[in-house]
């Protein structure tokens, strides 16, 4: 039975047994990761196995995975791990725990304990831990440097941006990635500026991470570099760049939103349709934040070809019934920028659909006034003589007038 199946079925007994006793280091490592993901911090067996692996396993990759598993699991697992050898009270008050873990971080000879201390300090989020963690950015063990970077990102203190920026030149890719992740989390101007050059890094994971983090900016400055990433050879980087470009607009202060919007629309119009349209549709369909859907639907109407692919048209049609009224209105406006028989047909189908909401049918009638022809005119004319909701009839009348009225 696979580890995935054990985790899915909640078979913690078998999963912990596999983590502890498998002959394969790769299996033990992956099992430790899964225990952190799906385990219960109240389950002593899970906690004990992860602590055992962190202390006793012969493979450093397994020990590292167990340390991170304890961090992911929560509870006081990291504290209990370090207490096994150092005597740190796992139930100490926060200020005392920070001081104790900082001491372990700076003085423990076993790197896994320094890793655990870094993780614990990051999870505590206390600013008093910033100094001790910053010192470990030069730890001889790259695994400790990596976790010190991540912990500093968790705390989010902007004072360490310069130190983290220096780690972008670390010899170990995992440390560089952790530093970039931390800078993206801190996300002030200096931190994000440090990530711009990573969009040209030879490591695809770093390029994707930088593209993702730059979506947190509050100005249009990263837009040209992100636009360049739309031509990256890797699809994941291209898609991430689109997501971040949309996020830039969502994050921009009101005073800067027009400048960001102008910069974005200019860049997206020049990009390849296949690169841009798929992620925009994905944002529209999956985003939980209304501001992201609004921006996606607005751009879809401006960067799509006049006769868009079917999946783009269907996404816009579906958005006419979005719970967010502004997203629905933006969808109607975007559709009016399109043309072609399939656009007209889709709108006619919706406006005739008795099962669709009144709001969606009214917006479809509105859009037909801009994109429709003879078929639309006939449909709208029939609606004005029917007993449909007044809102739909009102939109139909307005669209008929835009189309030149009913042909006699």
Description:
The chain is mostly helical and 408 residues long. It is 71% helix and 0% strand. The protein contains 25 helices and no strands. The radius of gyration is 28 Å and the shape is elongated. The mean pLDDT is 87. This is HEAT repeat domain-containing protein. InterPro entries: ARM-like, ARM-type_fold, Armadillo, PBS_lyase_HEAT. Pfam families: HEAT_2, HEAT_PBS. It comes from Halobaculum marinum.
In what range is the share of β-strand residues? under 5%
E-strand count: 0
User: Radius of gyration from the CA trace?
Assistant: 28 Å
Instruction: Kindly report the average pLDDT value.
Output: 87
Instruction: Return the structural class.
Output: mainly alpha
What gap, in angstroms, lies between the N and C termini?
A: 73 Å
State the major sheet: none
Overall outline: elongated
Tally of individual helices: 25
Relative helix content: over 70%
**Uncertain stretches:** none
Order of helices and strands: HHHHHHHHHHHHHHHHHHHHHHHHH
Protein name: HEAT repeat domain-containing protein
Pfam families: HEAT_2 (PF13646), HEAT_PBS (PF03130)
Organism: Halobaculum marinum
């Amino acid at each position: 039975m696979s580890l995935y199946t054990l985790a899915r079925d909640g078979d913690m007994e078998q999963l912990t047994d596999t983590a502890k006793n498998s002959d394969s280091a790769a299996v033990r490592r992956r099992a430790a990761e899964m225990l952190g993901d799906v385990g219960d911090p109240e389950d002593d067996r899970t906690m004990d196995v992860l602590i055992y692996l962190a202390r006793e396993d012969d493979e450093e990759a397994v020990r590292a995975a167990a340390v991170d598993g304890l961090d992911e699991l929560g509870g006081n697992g990291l504290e209990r791990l370090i207490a096994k050898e150092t005597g740190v009270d796992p139930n100490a008050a926060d200020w005392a725990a920070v001081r104790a873990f900082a001491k372990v971080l700076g003085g423990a000879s076993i790197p896994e304990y320094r890793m655990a201390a870094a993780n614990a300090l990051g999870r505590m989020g206390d600013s008093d831990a910033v100094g001790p963690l910053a010192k470990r950015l030069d730890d001889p063990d790259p695994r400790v440097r990596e976790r010190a970077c991540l912990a500093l990102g968790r705390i989010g203190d902007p004072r360490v941006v310069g130190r983290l920026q220096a780690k972008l030149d670390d010899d170990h890719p995992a440390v560089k990635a952790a530093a970039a992740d931390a800078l993206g989390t801190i996300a002030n101007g200096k931190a994000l500026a440090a990530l711009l050059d990573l969009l040209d890094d030879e490591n695809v994971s770093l390029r994707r991470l930088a593209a993702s983090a730059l979506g947190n900016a509050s100005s249009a400055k990263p837009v040209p570099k992100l636009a360049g990433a739309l031509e990256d050879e890797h699809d994941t980087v291209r898609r991430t760049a689109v997501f971040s470009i949309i996020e830039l607009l969502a994050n921009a202060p009101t005073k800067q939103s027009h400048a960001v919007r102008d910069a974005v629309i200019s860049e997206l119009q020049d990009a390849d349709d296949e690169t841009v349209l798929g992620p925009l549709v994905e944002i529209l369909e999956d985003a939980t934040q209304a501001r992201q859907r609004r921006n996606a639907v607005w751009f879809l109407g401006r960067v799509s070809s006049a006769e868009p692919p079917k999946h783009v048209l269907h996404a816009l049609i579906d958005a006419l019934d979005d719970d967010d009224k502004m997203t629905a209105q933006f969808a109607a406006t975007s559709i009016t920028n399109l043309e072609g028989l399939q656009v007209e047909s889709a709108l006619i189908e919706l406006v005739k659909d008795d099962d669709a909401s009144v709001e969606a049918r009214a917006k479809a009638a509105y859009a037909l006034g801009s994109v429709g022809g003879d078929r639309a005119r006939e449909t709208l004319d029939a609606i004005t003589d029917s007993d449909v909701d007044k809102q739909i009839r009102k939109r139909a009348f307005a669209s008929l007038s835009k189309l030149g009225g009913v042909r006699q």
